[in-house]
Design brief:
Elements: E1 9-12, E2 15-24, E3 30-36, E4 45-49, E5 56-57, E6 64-67, H1 74-84, H2 106-116, E7 122-125, H3 133-146, E8 153-157, H4 162-173, E9 178-180, H5 182-191, E10 204-208, H6 209-214, H7 216-223, E11 227-232, H8 247-256, E12 259-265, H9 274-284, H10 297-300, E13 304-305, H11 309-312, E14 324-331, H12 334-345, H13 349-354, H14 362-372, H15 374-391, H16 398-411, H17 419-429, E15 443-447, H18 451-464, E16 472-475, H19 481-491, E17 500-503, E18 517-522, H20 529-536, E19 549-556, H21 560-582, H22 595-607, H23 612-624, H24 628-636, H25 655-666, E20 674-676, E21 682-686, H26 689-698, H27 701-707, E22 712-716, H28 719-731, E23 741-743, H29 750-759, E24 766-772, E25 779-789, E26 795-806, E27 809-815, H30 816-822, H31 842-899, H32 904-929, E28 936-945
Helix pairs in contact: 1-25, 1-29, 2-3, 3-4, 12-16, 14-15, 15-16, 15-18, 21-23, 25-29, 31-32
């Protein structure tokens, strides 16, 4: 009986399969878990019982050699190229990520390098706002895809971010994510049976965290689906806060177990509490942190990277422009001063009663709303009056009378008496500000904390600026995913009429608002430094080409109490800018790392009547104070690679030439057409029905729509050109959202189609034989591939080499590059195939065929050296990993014994869970990092001199 092993190629039902897992039952019968290799079953998964099916191992020694009679050895070269391009990089170097359609900088490659050097690629990319975390995720995803670890991808992000993330992945990396927004979900549900898992419908998808969180059915589907890569954007929202897990953190816990690879993104990765950050680390590696309240930098090293603009600024010269900041002051009107006086004198019984407890006083909440706008403050007063009137029948209750008095004063602050609003109008029309409302690329983002203020500005600006329909937009979290995405998309495109976007802070996280805008106005001042950072990062970010112009609107008043409180907010502005330049993380100033906690500090300072000097000193003291948690993060997130290691890939053809030659070959049957572009390096390819069907099933509808009515596909390998085309689509007044020219590089889905087609030039049991006139007499070279897969069928050693024979005797093994150079195939344009078609070269063919079994044995011997090298390098790593797991298991169990010392039942449950967890990870290490000394060998092609091997 054959001993089946992972990685072995077999023929079952006349199709070629690769064994992923071979399970042997008590009767000695194998259940073979396979994935399809040949074209009809490619990438399909199936399980076969070896006692029922006829399973024929693929024997490379029995390959049939076919003399290549094509011009310039075209068939051999295309077939070789199609195979060579499917090789698996087995080192930790960057192979393609540095070639994406972006101005790549070293710091953006570092997260991928750090992740690739770990057994599991699970990492939190926690760079500061505006440094390009999405692009860093794309670089790592690209590296995993070429390693065969990125067939199925799930991206989870916010509603407003879906379109943006999808476009970045396609335009820069040609990673086709299908957007599962509410419309798409309805379409899929209409197509599929009710019990069908929609996550099996597309391999690469992006979905909103709110959809997954709120849709019970979708959460259930997650439990029965797995992915190669899962990305969670704005990951701080899934961290555990306190003892109870939110729906989002439960969702992230579920997803953490559905993929070997997880990439988390967050500019604000922790709230200052060790426990909540530990929850993120344990999602990435459940064995990392035993005690979430007490862990070291070594425990979490390699699980995250965190850099600030000051850390990488020297790499960004000429890319990031210094922001222009200005405070725009205005004097409060008499009506506003009246409100301030009434507010200052306001004494609420409800606050006197609640002062003994914890939390913010209602008066403080009112002041926060008042500092946003009279409209927002009125809304708060209305809501509280409604509650009080419901509770008390007597309208003479003091709080009711006081709030009614305040409400009456607020009503008198009309738009004309609202000084900050008038200052906004003045600024927009001033020569100094020089806003050109007719220019497509001079748009303004106005941020405000309150939705009521947003609505107020939207309504009044529309009227006072005489804006036409569509020239002003608003965005808040209350909107649907479709609406949020439409607004963000339009704001970044010249075609759209929008000139002003009024946004609540839902738009302050993650969104790219810098394509057509370099102006931002803080209509109100947030009470959180983190919000300042997030807002400013919408326009002051990687890719901004104009100097960011940021204005803060500030009201001056004669009321001493209000003036003092407003001064505290102005100090936040000053200290925030200083912190970004000097220490990197402004959150250090208030000593808090969550928006609500920062707001509580500011509220406390206001309630205690803290002076501006004392408030500023408190922030300076926080910087100077030793923060052990920050020190921990700084040590763990320190750069772990001196410089990213980049490997230059080399094949027979460039991407453009390979595609051109392949399409010319396929065009023999006049099904396809291809021509080179004149103005830029690229191709225009005629779309056959087969190609159109393949791409339409893979690419997002938005990309397919660009070429659905065309008979061709335009592909360009010049990345600068492609980047400019993306900008052109944004800036030109066109309906086109995605560029017509797609970036041609190794990850483009067209190569999957081409490689599959070119692989069929020769049958699966055939290899080309090139009879070369320039090869030295008596020489034959076997071009071979040998790989050692792990138990998950991932190649950990993948070698391409040549075996040279002279006069029928083995002489040497050489690298594939040396073998091709020796055979002069690299100069194939000058190497005409002078084969005599009447000769058929039967003698050469028979001689090479006779050498084939020996070549396979020589390949095994040659590959044994690579097996030994792998063992020497990896066995210490495996031992280290297993020892580390054993030590961590003891640490986890010790912690649980202390925590549950008073509950024997709970302790037993936790011990069982830990044993299962560490058994799984020990097994994972064995399955993932070990290989057997039984390589899978393929004969790719054979080159021989005219006249045969001339055996001696």
């Amino acid at each position: 009986m054959v001993d089946f092993a992972p990685g072995m190629r077999v023929i079952i039902r006349d199709e070629e399969w690769m064994i992923k897992k071979a399970e042997k039952n008590t009767m000695g019968v194998y259940a073979l878990h396979c994935t399809g290799v040949s074209s009809l079953v490619k990438d399909r998964n199936a399980i076969f019982m070896a006692d029922i099916e006829e399973v024929i191992p693929v024997d490379p020694a029995k390959m049939k050699l076919v003399v290549d009679e094509s011009p310039k050895y075209r068939d051999t070269l295309l077939y070789l190229e199609s195979q060579w391009r499917q090789r698996t990089p087995t080192d930790n170097n960057i192979h393609v990520g540095n070639k994406a359609a972006m101005d790549t900088m070293n710091y953006q490659l570092e997260p991928a390098q750090v992740a690739l050097e770990r057994p599991r690629q699970r990492i939190l990319i926690a760079d500061a706002v505006g440094l390009g975390k999405t692009l860093e995720a794309g670089i790592l995803m690209s590296e995993l895809i070429i390693r065969g670890k990125g067939k199925r991808i799930l991206v989870v992000t916010g509603k407003s971010m879906m379109t943006q993330f999808q476009k970045e992945m396609w335009n820069r990396f040609t990673i086709p994510l299908v957007r599962l927004d509410s419309n798409k979900i309805r379409q899929i549900r209409a197509k599929l049976p009710s019990n069908y898992n929609p996550f099996f419908y597309y391999d690469k998808t992006i979905i909103s965290v709110d959809t997954l969180k709120n849709d019970v059915a979708y959460r259930k589907h997650l439990e029965s689906a797995t992915w190669d890569i899962i990305v969670i954007d704005e990951a701080q929202s899934v961290a555990t806060r306190g003892e109870r897990n939110s729906q989002r953190s439960k969702l992230a816990d579920l997803l953490a177990n559905r993929s070997d690879t997880m990439i988390m993104l967050s500019a604000t990765p922790h709230d200052g509490k060790a426990r909540s950050f530990a929850s993120l680390m344990n999602m990435l590696d459940p064995t990392a942190v035993a005690n979430p309240d007490d862990y070291t930098a070594e425990d979490i090293k390699g699980l995250f990277v965190r850099r600030f603009k000051k850390d990488v600024k020297n790499q960004m010269s000429g890319v990031v422009l210094e922001r222009h900041l200005a405070e725009e002051s205005c004097q409060a009107t008499a009506e506003e001063e009246a409100v301030y006086d009434i507010f200052t004198a306001l004494k609420l019984d409800m606050d006197i009663e609640s002062k003994r407890g914890k939390g913010q006083l209602f008066k403080t909440a009112l002041e926060k709303a008042l500092f946003s706008s009279p409209a927002a403050c009125m809304k708060n007063v209305e809501a509280r009056l409604k509650k009080l009137r419901k509770k008390y029948a007597d309208d003479e209750i003091k709080d009711i009378r006081s709030l009614e008095n305040l409400y009456g004063a607020l009503e008198k602050v009309t738009a004309k008496e609202f000084s900050r609003y008038q200052k906004l109008l003045e600024l927009l029309g001033s020569k100094e500000y020089n806003w050109n409302r007719r220019a497509d690329d001079d748009r303004i983002v106005i941020f405000t904390e309150r939705i009521d203020t947003m609505e107020y500005l939207y309504k009044n600006l529309s009227s006072d600026l005489k804006l036409k329909a569509g020239e002003i937009e608003k965005i808040s979290g209350a909107m649907s995913d479709d609406e949020q995405q439409r607004i963000v998309e339009n704001f970044g495109r010249a075609k759209a009429k929008v000139r002003i976007l009024v946004a609540s802070d839902v738009a302050s996280e993650g969104l790219n608002l810098h394509y057509m805008s370099h102006r931002m106005i803080h209509f109100d001042l947030p009470w959180s430094l983190m919000v300042f950072q997030q807002r400013n990062g919408r326009i002051d970010r990687y890719g901004q080409t104009q100097q960011p112009d940021i204005r803060y609107l500030v009201t001056e008043t004669e009321n001493e109490k209000i003036k003092g409180d407003m001064r505290l907010l102005e100090i936040l502005i000053e200290k925030h800018e200083q912190a970004e330049k000097n220490i990197g993380d402004p959150a250090t100033l208030l000593g808090k790392f969550a928006e609500e906690e920062e707001e509580a500090v500011v509220a406390g300072a206001i309630e205690d009547g803290q002076s501006a000097d004392d408030f500023g000193k408190m922030m300076e003291d926080n910087i100077a104070a030793f923060n052990p948690l920050e020190a921990l993060f700084a040590a763990a997130a320190a750069p772990q690679v001196e410089k990213p290691k980049v490997s230059e890939e080399e094949t027979l053809y460039s991407d453009t030439e390979y595609l051109f030659q392949a399409m010319k070959y396929f065009n023999q049957n006049e099904e396809h057409s291809v021509q080179k572009l004149e103005s830029v390096k690229g191709l225009e390819i005629g779309l056959s029905e087969d190609m159109r069907h393949r791409l339409s099933a893979t690419l997002p509808k938005e990309v397919v729509d660009v070429f659905k009515d065309r008979s061709y596909l335009r592909l360009v390998s010049d990345r600068e050109y492609c980047m400019n085309e993306v900008k052109r689509c944004q800036k030109e007044k066109t309906e086109q959202i995605y560029p017509e020219a797609q970036y041609l590089w190794p990850l483009h889905p067209i190569f999957d189609w081409v490689n599959d087609k070119a692989s069929l030039i020769f049958s699966r049991d055939e290899a080309p034989l090139g009879v070369l006139s320039d090869l030295p007499e008596g020489n034959t070279i076997f071009l071979m591939n040998g790989s050692f897969p792990n138990q998950k069928s991932t190649s950990l050693v993948d070698e391409w080499f040549g075996l040279r024979y002279e006069k029928g005797k083995f002489v040497e093994a050489m690298s594939l590059k040396e073998a091709l150079s020796y055979g002069k195939l690299r100069s194939s344009k000058e190497l005409p195939n002078t084969i005599d078609r009447d000769n058929h070269y039967s003698q050469e063919k028979e001689a090479c065929q006779a050498l084939l079994p020996d070549a396979v044995e020589q390949a095994k011997e040659y590959l044994a050296g690579f097996y030994e090298k792998y063992q020497e390098k990896t066995q210490p790593q495996i031992d280290e990993e297993l020892n580390k797991l054993a030590e961590l298991e003891l640490r986890h169990k010790d912690y649980k014994r202390i925590k549950f010392q008073h509950s024997e039942r709970k302790l037993k449950e936790e011990m069982r869970r830990l044993e299962d967890l560490f058994t799984y990870f020990n097994q994972w290490v064995e399955e993932t990092m070990t290989i057997e000394n039984s390589p899978y060998i393929r004969v790719i092609a054979v080159l021989t001199a005219k006249g045969g091997t001339q055996r001696g």
